[in-house]
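Quick one: structure for this chain?
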Amino acid sequence: MKTVAELREIAQFIAEYATRLMGSGVHTSRVVRNSKRLGDALGVRVIVSAFQKVVTFSVCDDESGEVYSEVADIPPLPISFKLNAELSALSWEAYDRRMPLPEIRTRYAEIIARPRLGPIFTLILVGLANASFCRLFGGDWLAVSIVFTATLLGFFLRQRMQARGLNHYVIFIASSFAASMCASVALMFDTTSEVALATSVLFLIPGVPLINGVIDIVEGHVLNGIARLTSALMLIICIAIGLSCTLMIVKNGLL
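Got it. Here's what it folds into:
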């Protein structure tokens, strides 16, 4: 039998755990399953109601009839598939071993404290990935090098603006414009300039929200799915605005 204080402690931990998953790019059903699994490991029943910005939890002790509810904001966090996999594995480990809450907290703290990829290393990887897209879509090696440089500029600008806490729609417009404007240098050379311009902004495509939105709708979390798809659509429109500004300046004929 759990006391109200114990239920509060469990609810607060599960709230922190689940909102970190949601903020890191996990679809809703996975968050619900992991949260319920943690509740089973701790001997309580967890009811989860997830939305785009907040998650509501009710932790129930069927023996005593006590119920404690918690509402938590979803923080904007970098997408991390490794973190998501490790946190999901933690829920299974807790369930299989029936770990007590202090031990789960310790393991959770170890997971989130592990060092992540540095911003410079991430910048270089994103540049290489976007340059690979250019090559994949038929760009020559000069266009690939131009797209690599443009991606470095656009993603660096995105990192700096995010660090200052600016609106993410403004960030996407500015990053798209900066990257495509840099890629417009390809127009000065005998190269596949159209491919360079088109692929210079692909690093901004919100693939995870698009995928999660579809998964949420398919699995019955329709409100979350529509919200995620709408947010992704707005970001795509912002990318188009930034690219269109470049085209109007340097190559109006394409419009």
